[in-house]
# Entry
Amino acid sequence: MRLDRGIGWSLNGFDLSGTDLDGVRWLVKDVEGWDDPASTKGGVTQNPFSDGGWLEPTFLEPPSLVLKARLLARTRAEAIRAKDAFKAAIPVRALAPLVLVDAGVIKHRMVKQEGRPSVKQVSDHHVEMSVQLVAPDARVLSGDGATGYTYTAEARLPVTTGGLQVGALQVGAGTPLQVAANTVSGSITLTNAGNAEPPVKLLITNAVNPSISDQTGQRMDLAITVGAGQTLEIDLDRKTVKLNGVNRRNALTGPWLVPAAGTVLQFNAKTYNAAARMVAQWSDAWR
# Structure
């Protein structure tokens, strides 16, 4: 991505900062709503029989953003080509990343067009653009959105192997011979540089009745066998459980774990299988 004084913007992979190969100068003047916390849906219902009320479930609403940019070209023909390229990059039917690079930190929101864009040719060389976008996720996430998640880590089922001590009389004079044990913890520690709950997806393979717990003692149990060639996908963000893409949320008992920076996810199963794996995928998240 091109940077202009350490800052760069792109929409759907289209650079909106600095000077491109055709000599067109791009500038993002503002992205309204980018840094604003999302508004909320839900509140308090008045008690019809007394003072006060009841708290309703409250959720963050999808934020609306307004991207305001301009381009300066050397000729009218260059301005028209650049304008058309920009319009083609606006995501309409599918989400695409709106990416900010600032002070070396890469963040993005997945967005699509909302309403009617304004692309106005002010002069032969100057075009002003304003596009309203909607982001279904209220958070800003780390990375450029190309891979879905920023971090990946893997855990196997916990096991201790080896470990042996033979007395001094059996091996001759001196201290006993000790062979260190090999311990697999079966855990993954989540990180989060942001200030919001990070999105986390777990992928489990080759496990019978797997379970995931955290350091607080909360545990998710799954009454399901994940056979060879199958993948159990648990999305802690969307609250879904799928086996090879088929809904199996009814296999889950126990509370949904709430991930945060420092959360330790412990992987376990009813029976030990050396091929069993839990892969965690997650990103930093900001409000």
